[in-house]
């Protein structure tokens, strides 16, 4: 099938999606973010603590470079493993370096990020293309992102997503398109949105909370709209995956209430309580998005990078041995464990942004817990790594050690379910103040690898 006919097919398929909210079928066999609402994958500290790195887990012996060698129950995976990096655009966190740069300057910066990924022997970039209910492509549904030009809705004079896909593929990199479903703005002023913004046309869709604006996940018409907006990019471009971060319902803000009373009154009658209804809203978004991606562009993957703690064991016996202040099941209404167990998504990248031995959320304990969750499922498990903490001022002493991040990969290599790692984020890959990423490459990425499919 020719390129134009393929695109026409995809756009035609997209036009038939989500016409009856809540009725989409489940997908085949079936959020990056600071706790206060930051740039994307990067939750706040779960707590302090520290301690020595544990011994290498069973399943492989430590090799001469500190990496775990393949054992009898662990085949070599050097040729296929996820080696990814997030490129955050919200608030110009990673790229573009600032709004208002020329198209040529923005393109040059983007190419530099891609080339750097190749030099570090990575194989995947996860580019944030819908950071705040906007677009880094010519979307018919939402305005151009303000992070390109400084003015929301202003045409930047080029197609960033289209260019990113082409240039990534030319370098042998997979391109995952990263979308935030419900965040509208990192401010609470609807009048600051572009004149034609859907949130201004439909103020009843909007919930102000914590000094920000969000679409209400409890409204079927909202869920239908955000899927159309996101899947437009999938129809237009041969992206390798659709990627969500950790933002579903927003992180809790002390003393504030997310006001979805009206939506709950209208749509929550079949549920025992509001929490169960909210979780069903997010489950439905995930299932419908999986089905939509498969329909619009078959073969495209769908993955999520949630906050790293599903539930503490003190809350639920099935939970992890952690004492995190946020639990995705209870606070973000994202039942990430179920998504893995039921294969509603193709891959999961829990944000395990704590050091080995952290008292509240030990990296070692969480890797073991997620590996057990993924065991026997078809969902691929990758680990989100806090490159941004390595060598950063104010971080615990463990993060000042350039070997900490390499130890993470050594430890995770003892679990066959862990099929790779994704690093947050691109500007930290460039800076690498402690040399932590250089150590990872030297210890673990001595040759190229393809991402799992």
TrEMBL record:
It comes from the Bacteria. Residues 81-393 form the Glycosyl hydrolase-like domain. The keyword Iron-sulfur does not apply. Residues 56-71 have a biased composition (Low complexity). It holds the Pfam family GHL10. Residues 29-77 are annotated as: Disordered. Keywords: Lipoprotein, Signal. Residues 34-52 have a biased composition (Gly residues). Residues 1-24 form the signal peptide. PANTHER family: GLYCOSYL HYDROLASE DIGH. This is Uncharacterized lipoprotein YddW (UPF0748 family). It comes from Streptomyces echinatus.
């Amino acid at each position: 099938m020719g390129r134009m006919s393929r695109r026409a097919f995809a756009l035609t398929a997209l036009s038939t999606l989500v016409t009856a909210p809540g009725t989409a079928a489940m997908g085949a066999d079936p959020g990056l973010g600071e706790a206060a609402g930051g740039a994307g994958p990067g939750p706040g500290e779960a707590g302090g603590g520290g301690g020595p790195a544990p011994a290498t887990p069973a399943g492989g012996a430590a090799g001469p470079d500190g990496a775990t060698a393949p054992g009898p129950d662990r085949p070599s995976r050097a040729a296929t493993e996820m080696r990814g990096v997030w490129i955050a655009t919200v608030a110009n966190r990673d790229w573009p370096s600032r709004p208002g740069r020329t198209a040529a300057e923005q393109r040059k910066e983007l190419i530099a990020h891609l080339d750097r990924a190749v030099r570090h022997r990575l194989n995947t970039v996860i580019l944030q293309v819908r950071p705040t209910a906007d677009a880094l492509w010519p979307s018919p549904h939402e305005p151009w992102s303000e992070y390109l030009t400084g003015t929301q809705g202003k045409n930047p004079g080029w197609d960033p997503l289209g260019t990113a896909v082409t240039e990534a593929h030319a370098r042998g990199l997979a391109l995952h398109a990263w979308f935030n479903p419900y965040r509208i703005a990192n401010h609470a002023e609807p009048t600051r949105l572009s004149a034609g913004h859907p949130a201004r046309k439909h103020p009843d869709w909007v919930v102000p909370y914590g000094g920000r604006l969000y679409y209400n996940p409890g409204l079927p018409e909202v869920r239908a709209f955000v899927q159309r907006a996101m899947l437009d990019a999938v129809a237009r471009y041969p992206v390798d995956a659709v990627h969500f971060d950790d933002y579903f319902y927003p992180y809790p803000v002390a003393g504030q209430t997310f006001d979805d009373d009206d939506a709950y009154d209208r749509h929550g009658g079949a549920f025992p309580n509001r929490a169960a209804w909210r979780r069903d809203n997010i489950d439905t978004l995930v299932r419908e998005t999986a089905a939509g991606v498969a329909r619009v562009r078959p073969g495209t993957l769908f993955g999520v990078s949630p906050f790293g703690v599903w539930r503490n064991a003190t809350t639920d016996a099935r939970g992890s041995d952690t004492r995190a202040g946020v639990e995705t099941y209870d606070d973000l209404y994202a039942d990430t464990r179920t998504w893995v167990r039921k294969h509603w998504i193709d891959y999961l990248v829990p944000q395990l942004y704590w050091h080995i031995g952290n008292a509240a959320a030990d990296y070692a304990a969480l890797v073991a817990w997620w590996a057990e969750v993924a065991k026997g499922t078809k969902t691929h498990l990758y680990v989100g790594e806090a490159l941004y903490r390595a060598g950063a001022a104010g971080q615990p002493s463990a993060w000042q050690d350039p070997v900490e991040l390499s130890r993470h990969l050594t430890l995770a290599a003892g679990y066959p379910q862990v099929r790779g790692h994704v690093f947050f984020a691109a500007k930290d890959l460039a800076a690498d103040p402690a040399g932590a990423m250089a150590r990872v490459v030297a210890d673990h990425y001595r040759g190229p690898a393809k991402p799992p499919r």
